[in-house]
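Hypothesis: this fold can be encoded by more than one sequence.
Test: take the structure tokens below, design a sequence, compare later.
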């Protein structure tokens, strides 16, 4: 028996010696990465917009995650979360760091060249610049609800000019639930 056969045999045997196939209801990579972006968005303190982003390299390894929030050290309780205030200084826009910026700056790799970024919402023009400058080559987004805004039009103009691909993701599952009691630890095969 060669090594490949042995490995195949090992993966087909469970503890009782019965043949066992892999699970079929696992989520695929794209759903997994988009779900990671959405999970990160749950950390956002912004009452009107929660956006998450997940940067992934060519080996399907996550190299950065972020969500929209105030800069490090700028107190969430002190800086404003409102919008359309008489003075722009009292609205969030001048202060908040977008998810894409945070995901890229949070990278745990030397760089994010040739990576993909998964985002809940199509990137604004400021994030588009950061995406381009960082070497990211692909943007996968869920919503394009600001498509008509100049910020989004500018983003697409820049992406098109430099060849950053972008496409809308349609999830297979409308919902991916994380339930801490989902996994039945007692019925799991013992670790060897
Ligand atoms: Zn942005």
């Amino acid at each position: 028996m060669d090594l490949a056969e042995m490995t195949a045999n090992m993966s087909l045997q469970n503890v009782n010696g019965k043949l066992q196939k892999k699970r079929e209801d696992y989520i695929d990579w794209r759903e997994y990465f988009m779900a990671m972006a959405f999970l990160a968005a749950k950390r956002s303190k912004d009452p009107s917009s929660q956006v998450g982003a997940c940067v992934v390299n060519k080996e399907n390894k996550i190299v950065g995650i972020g969500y929209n929030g105030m800069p490090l050290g700028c107190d969430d309780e002190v800086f404003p979360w409102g919008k359309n205030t008489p003075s722009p200084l009292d609205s969030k826009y001048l202060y908040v760091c977008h998810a894409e910026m945070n995901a890229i700056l949070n990278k745990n790799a030397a760089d994010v060249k040739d990576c993909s970024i998964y985002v809940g919402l199509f990137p604004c023009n400021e994030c588009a610049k950061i995406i381009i400058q960082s070497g990211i080559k692909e943007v996968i987004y869920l919503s394009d609800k600001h498509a008509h805004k100049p910020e989004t039009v500018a983003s697409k103009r820049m992406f098109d000019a430099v060849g950053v691909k972008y496409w809308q993701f349609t999830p297979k599952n409308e919902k991916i639930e994380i339930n801490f009691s989902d996994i039945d630890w007692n019925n799991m095969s013992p670790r060897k």
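Strands lie at 52-56, 62-67, 116-121, 138-143, 165-168. Helices lie at 3-12, 29-41, 99-105, 125-134, 150-162.
Hypothesis status: open.
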